[in-house]
Design a protein that fits this description.
It contains 12 helices and 13 strands. The protein has a 7-stranded mixed β-sheet, sandwiched between helices. Helix 11 links the parallel strand 12 and strand 13. It is an alpha+beta fold and about 375 residues long.
Length: about 375
């Protein structure tokens, strides 16, 4: 149907299936606009398209083979993705996550995202005790004490911003059912860099937007991350979930660090990137500072716990104010206006229908009157 000259299968080399295109009209309609644009130019003179078939092991190696010519860091068990440009980011990411990762991709980095749990990791988690209901209850108690220190401000914030800081669900998970852990932003760079360069389009006011816990004298503007070192951050779009994210940071980069990125690999910085309102960020930062001061107290028995004195911990305010956010907000605004207009048009349409009905009724009435008067219109 697509060609007046059927290709000879015996002369076709290779095993990939093929599609004969003689016109842009032959393109399948479910293609994306960008792909269709390119293929339509090839279809005009007539051509044959081959669709490759990939084996599973090839797919697993695809990110490295396609995005980098250098050998990735073999340390650790977490999977990796080599990013050399913001264009390498997968398109199904959310705009907020893409904003952060695009800054890391610019200088070139290796991202570690998923860690598949094996029996050895399950044993480590069980021995650490961090997933027991007792540990989670003690964690919640420390959060309560930290937040109570600023209960008045929290109450005011709750009244104005509806901020509620959540607690962990103190229920021991079945480790046999845990198959993997995911990291939001666990990356190492191809060259020496610093936090200010990475987040230059994300952090507006470092003095106000960055809170540093731990080592005295640490400066955001001059904090360097050496080639091969990792920075490990979690991203939270909801300020109320900040301590749940802190728990994840502790579990993944403290208990399972060797499995995640390798025993000999150094973590240069850890932290949380937070969206939301500024007043919520200030409240959360005060509670977190108090939490870290309580975490080492034997009363709460939270070992193992992230130690900012050993690895600097950064809490950064990164509100959703990028071009993606602006476009999404604009899209939502336009859709809202169209929905309102559509509602108005529907009401007008309903009125016109009623007028049509009344006109029909009037025509019938006039017809009867004229017939009664023996008047032919």
């Amino acid at each position: 149907m697509l060609s007046s000259r059927k290709p000879d299968p015996s002369r076709m080399q290779g095993k990939a299936d093929y599609q004969c295109l003689r016109s842009p009209l032959n393109l399948v309609h479910h293609m994306g606009a960008y792909e269709s644009l390119i293929l339509s130019r090839c279809a005009s003179p007539g051509w044959m398209r081959r669709k490759p078939q990939y084996r599973m092991h090839s797919l697993l190696q695809w990110p490295h083979r396609m995005l980098s010519s250098s050998k990735p860091d073999p340390s650790g068990k977490a999977d990796y993705q080599c990013l050399r440009s913001p264009l390498d980011l997968v398109h199904h990411m959310g705009a907020y996550e893409s904003l952060i990762l695009s800054r890391c991709a610019s200088p070139g980095c290796i991202r570690r995202e998923k860690l598949r749990v094996d029996k050895e990791m399950s044993r480590k988690l069980a021995e650490s005790g961090v997933l027991t209901d007792g540990y989670m209850k003690r964690f919640n108690a420390a959060v309560d004490a930290a937040c109570n220190e600023y209960s008045k401000r929290l109450k005011e914030c709750h009244d104005e911003s509806h901020l509620t800081i959540s607690r962990l669900d103190p229920k021991t998970p079945d480790l046999k059912k845990v198959t993997e852990f995911q990291a939001d932003l666990c990356v190492s760079f191809d060259e020496d860099t610093d936090l200010e360069t990475i987040f230059k389009d994300v952090i507006d006011q470092p003095a106000a937007d960055v809170k540093i816990f731990g080592q005295p004298g640490v400066s955001y503007e001059h904090f360097e991350i050496r080639k091969g070192e990792y920075m490990c951050f979690e991203i939270t779009e909801k300020p109320g979930k900040v301590f749940e994210k802190l728990f994840q940071v502790n579990r993944l980069y403290n208990v399972l660090k060797d499995d995640m990125i390798g025993a000999d690999t150094k973590i240069a910085a850890m932290g949380l990137l937070m969206n939301g309102k500024r007043e919520e960020f200030e409240i959360v930062s005060l509670c977190m500072r108090e939490f870290f001061s309580l975490a080492s107290d034997a009363k709460y028995d939270l070992a193992p716990m992230v130690e900012p004195a050993r690895i600097p911990f950064f809490l950064m305010y990164t509100p959703y104010r990028n071009i993606f956010g602006v476009m999404q907000d604009l899209k939502n605004t336009v859709e809202s206006k169209f929905n309102k207009m559509e509602g108005k048009f529907n009401r007008m349409d309903s009125k016109f229908n009623r007028m049509d009905s009344k006109l029909d009724e009037l025509n019938r009435t006039m017809g009867l009157v004229l017939k009664h008067l023996n008047i032919v219109p």
